[in-house]
Amino acid sequence: MPTGRDPPRPYTLRGRPNRPIETDVSVALNHPVTHPAYLGLLADGELRRRAERARELMRDCVLCGRHCHVDRLKSLRGSACRTGERVAVASFGPHHGEENVLRGSHGSGAIFFAGCNLHCVFCQNADISQNRAGSEVEAEELASMMLVLEERGCHNVNLVSPSHAIAQILAAVAIAAARGLRLPLVYNSGGYDSLEGLALLDGVVDVYMPDMKYGDSKTARAYSRVRNYVAVNRAAVLEMHRQVGTLVLDENGIAVRGLLVRHLVLPGGLANSGQVFRFLAEDVSSDTWVNVMDQYRPAWRAAAFPPLDRAIRSDEYERALGLARRYGLHRLDSSRDRWC
Question: pTM of the predicted model, to two decimals?
Answer without folding.
Answer: 0.90
